[in-house]
Amino acid sequence: MVNASFVNVGRWSALGLGVLYGVVHNRSLHKLEAENKVKHEYERKERLIEQAREQYAKLNAVAVDSSAVVTDVDSPNFDLEKFIAHLEQDKQ
């Protein structure tokens, strides 16, 4: 028969190895989760930048049209002469 102290050492060793495995596995899961969080945050920022580019393109596409009269006085594309000519045409 096996000595009782040998059995106890085996049990405690198995318990210690199990705890050690749990700690190492937990660290690897936390590291993986942190990497995924950084990746998702980066992708979210990329989507926001792409949406901002699309909105900017839409705003500039409207402002580039030279035949349209810009009525917003604060706009950098506002032309007073075109605006007055447009108002005169509307009167007639």
UniProtKB/TrEMBL annotation:
Keyword hit for Mitochondrion: yes
Organism: Umbelopsis ramanniana AG
Coiled-coil regions listed: 31-62
InterPro entries in the cross-refs: ATP_synth_F0_esu_mt
A Pfam family annotated for this UniProt entry: ATP-synt_E
Major localization listed first in the record, in broad terms: mitochondrion
Function: Subunit e, of the mitochondrial membrane ATP synthase complex (F(1)F(0) ATP synthase or Complex V) that produces ATP from ADP in the presence of a proton gradient across the membrane which is generated by electron transport complexes of the respiratory chain. ATP synthase complex consist of a soluble F(1) head domain - the catalytic core - and a membrane F(1) domain - the membrane proton channel. These two domains are linked by a central stalk rotating inside the F(1) region and a stationary peripheral stalk.
Top-level division of the source organism's lineage: Eukaryota
Localization per Swiss-Prot or TrEMBL: Mitochondrion inner membrane
Family membership: Belongs to the ATPase e subunit family.
GO biological process: proton motive force-driven ATP synthesis
Record keywords: ATP synthesis, CF(0), Coiled coil, Hydrogen ion transport, Ion transport, Membrane, Mitochondrion, Mitochondrion inner membrane, Transport
Organism lineage: Eukaryota, Fungi, Fungi incertae sedis, Mucoromycota, Mucoromycotina
Gene Ontology molecular function: any one: proton transmembrane transporter activity
One GO cellular component term noted in the UniProt record for this chain: mitochondrial inner membrane
Assembly, per entry: F-type ATPases have 2 components, CF(1) - the catalytic core - and CF(0) - the membrane proton channel. CF(1) and CF(0) have multiple subunits.
Protein name from the UniProt record: ATP synthase F(0) complex subunit e, mitochondrial
